[in-house]
Amino acid sequence: MSTAKTRHHHGDLKRALIQAGIDLLEEGGLEALSLRKCAARAGVSHAAPAHHFAGLPGLITAIAEEGFDIFSKYMTDAINAGEQTDRERLRGICRGYLQFGLSHSGLLKVMFGEHGLGVHAPRSDNREEAEAYLILRGVCAPFVPEGEDPHIVEAQVWSLIHGFTLLYLGGEFGCTDAPIEDSPFEAVMALIDRIGTQATG
Amino acid sequence: MSTAKTRHHHGDLKRALIQAGIDLLEEGGLEALSLRKCAARAGVSHAAPAHHFAGLPGLITAIAEEGFDIFSKYMTDAINAGEQTDRERLRGICRGYLQFGLSHSGLLKVMFGEHGLGVHAPRSDNREEAEAYLILRGVCAPFVPEGEDPHIVEAQVWSLIHGFTLLYLGGEFGCTDAPIEDSPFEAVMALIDRIGTQATG
DNA sequence: ACTCAATTTTGACACTGTAAAGTTAATCTT
DNA sequence: AAGATTAACTTTACAGTGTCAAAATTGAGT
């Protein structure tokens, strides 16, 4: 009664379909992703995926979960790469966030976009996304004033880096090719540096 | 040689198609938007739109432009509604940004999303978007330190409110139905209040 | 009235997702 | 071990989609 090992025909088609979907996504963006193409790449007929996913939205959800795993890896790597001070860890997670977006824009769109979920299903009970959020929570914790709701700082950091990443990816800052250091990224980091401080004048 | 008045058959089909598209978008989200349905609503055959737009991306671009007009209106209204201090105007534009997103999420997705443009075409030479950006610029101006690049403050404000709006719309804060005052919106506004100040401690 | 170009329609094609029914292969039961 | 059962997959079919090419229609200019 093995759960997903070399079962009936294909071996594990589910995995193959998800991987094909990710490849398609990274090669040609969201437009290039289709159930039938995934099936073709996995070497099965076009209706086979129906037995593993709830249609296209189901496949996209599975891809998004996979995306959150990679996303988490980017963030922890960036955190660990820098100085191990509270402030540098906070900056680090932002760098990881942006770098993930730059390297996997298709995944990012799928994770937070139209289908990702959001409307279609409650995000709460999603292991992968919850894990990513816990990383954010850990990094933000040192900046949460005693007795205050941690969600406040988390919302500030998340909104800022999420917004920047999406605008940057959309070319809204008009500098998609320039080195990151020259972009408004440092400006956003300067605002990050003000989190958990008190304003004066 | 009038440019767009009661010309040949339909009157001005272009306008009707854009309006149909906006309606579709607000009724059923992005999924519900299709060239053929727009054509049907405008009472023409399915291939008629081809002569007014460069395919579906072209129609979406036109809808996005219309969206930026409405967007600008939301922001200026919110700015003018509040106290006329620099700080309150800054808060006002954020309120307008969020309220537009809440009322017209489909438009927002089209404006900044996959097709909106971003990749497909350079955003710079877009009258409607440029106008929206100028509103942001005007509100940010009082907070730009002398001799510094205004883009810095603009990127900070834009990233923050854009990210918050998208995350909020995606249900990421888990409070889509609660009153805005209870949401992390106030937290984000607290960070906005720190723009143009100096950190201490 | 004739011409002509812009506008719209018709028809077709290659895709898409999805559902239903049929086929094959592995597991379970006895 | 043999038959029954179920899961995985294929085949077929249908309703949509965007897009193209060729025809038909319409409005305006001469």
TrEMBL record, chains A, B:
Has keyword DNA-binding? yes
Query: Which top-level group of life is the source organism from?
Result: Bacteria
Q: Which organism is it from?
A: Shimia sagamensis
The name of this protein is: Transcriptional regulator, TetR family
SUPFAM superfamilies, A to Z: Homeodomain-like, Tetracyclin repressor-like, C-terminal domain
Per UniProt, which keywords does this protein have? DNA-binding, Transcription, Transcription regulation
Question: InterPro entries given for it?
Answer: Homeodomain-like_sf, HTH-type_TetR-like_transc_reg, HTH_TetR, MT1864/Rv1816-like_C, Tet_transcr_reg_TetR-rel_C_sf
HTH tetR-type domain location: 11-71
Which PANTHER family does the entry mention? HTH-TYPE TRANSCRIPTIONAL REGULATOR RUTR, TETR-FAMILY REGULATORY PROTEIN
DNA-binding as a keyword of this entry, yes or no, is: yes
Residue intervals annotated as DNA-binding region are 34-53
Which parts pass through the membrane? none
